[in-house]
Amino acid sequence: xxxKQFTRAAGVISRMKEGIIEQLEPDFDNLEEHIKNMTEYExxxxxxxxxxxxxxxxxxxxxxxxxxxxxxxxLPATLSRHLHSGNYRSAADIFQCCEPFLRRHREVASFDD
Length: 113
Fold this sequence. Notes:
Layout: H1 2-84, H2 88-104
């Protein structure tokens, strides 16, 4: 008697499982299609952003170069200001920061002063 109840319960569970899977199958197919679409949209978005990313990197490099030039052009005035106010250590630190660049480009007449 217990065995019959067990097998009957197992059969009911098996049929319920099959029924649930059959009912969910269209949802799984729909979900799979949505994931595929999302992947395609992601690829399109990435390709659209990639060119802007490259341009942005180039602009940032130019901006950094401009900032370095701005520091170099202001170096004489900055050093004078620190030296006149007695901040010798600060002036030396500032010069040491720029010295490697100045040495590498000593052929440029403006950096020789």
